[in-house]
Amino acid sequence: QPNDEALGDDIRPWSVRDDEDGVWFPTSLIPGRQAILIVDTSEEGFFHGWIDYDENGDWKGQEPEERLFSPSLPLQKGFNWIAFEVPEDANAPETSYARFRFGRQETLAYAGEARNGEVEDYRIALCPTYDVWIMTDDIVYYPGEDVSLSFYVDDVSQIEIIRHRADGTSSVLWAGTVEPGRQELRDHGGVLRALSVVGTETIEMITTSLPTGCSTWVTTPFVVVEP
After folding, report:
1. Element of type H or E holding 222
2. Each residue's pLDDT tens digit, 48-87
3. How far is the C-alpha of 17 from the C-alpha of 101, rounded, in Å?
4. Domain range for residue 211?
5. 98: nearest Cα among 66, 64, 132
6. Closest-CA residue to 30 (of 98, 132, 150)
7. Cβ-contact 100, 72 below 8 angstroms
8. Is the peptide bond between 71 and the residue preceding it cis, with omega within 30 degrees of 0?
9. How many degrees, rounded to 5, is the angle at CA 109 between CA 52 and CA 90?
């Protein structure tokens, strides 16, 4: 069933069997600015995306700016980095929703049947001016390797960095208050190392601007493979 966390179509959020595991938002969404998606696919296909910028509850055709690609974006197997523009007149409140569909059909609506593929819904945040991003120095690691994690905030911010492991467990890597600018997790005493469990992990950063009170969250993946 639909719910406010966009988990109505999710079998087990942040679990080893999580089916919402193909899209990450490593940058914040700011009206009039470019944002980035990271998408992982198991085969070549077509990627479709919608964001409910005015939070009226749908992504209907009379709002073409809410469709990210027209009609879709062809993707290669593996990780794909996608840039898109957030409309200048995006007027959603702090929280809204995105829907993504992937499959072999070049044209799909935001709802309805498809011959194959997957649908994933995500809860997202928009802040008028709050610039935030997170990234690792690589995408693939062997067990035991150090993972260098960088992040950026443009306000004095309260942040929490959470690791969601491939085995379905989660833990807080670091939490605290930071000044504006680019930061390294290790500079704050945090340690991130690839574990022996192979699979895709997600690093999530939840952050609040102390001057404005606006909150957002960004995510980035990395993969642990067998040596």
Report:
1. strand 215-224
2. 999 988 777 666 644 567 888 888 999 999 999 999 999 8
3. 19
4. 132-224
5. 66
6. 132
7. no
8. yes
9. 20
Give the chain's domain count.
Answer: 2
Is 13 within a domain?
no
- Sign of the alpha-carbon dihedral angle for 26, 6, 12, 84: negative
Contact 45, 117 (CB under 8 A): yes
- What residue has token string 């490593």? 26
Phi first, then psi: give them for residue 64, nearest 5 degrees.
-65, -25
Specify the pTM: 0.88
For 90, the token pair is 């995006």
Helix (H, G, I), strand (E, B), or coil: what is residue 166?
coil
pLDDT digits (tens, 9 = 90+) for 191-221: 999 999 999 999 999 999 999 999 999 999 9
**Nearest in space to 5 (alpha carbons), one of 129, 97, 128, 138:** 97
Whether residues 116 and 185 fall in one domain: no
Instruction: Give the number of other CB atoms < 10 A from CB of residue 71.
Output: 12
Domain end residue (candidates: 72, 98, 125): 125
CATH number of the domain within which 153 lies:
2.60.40.1930
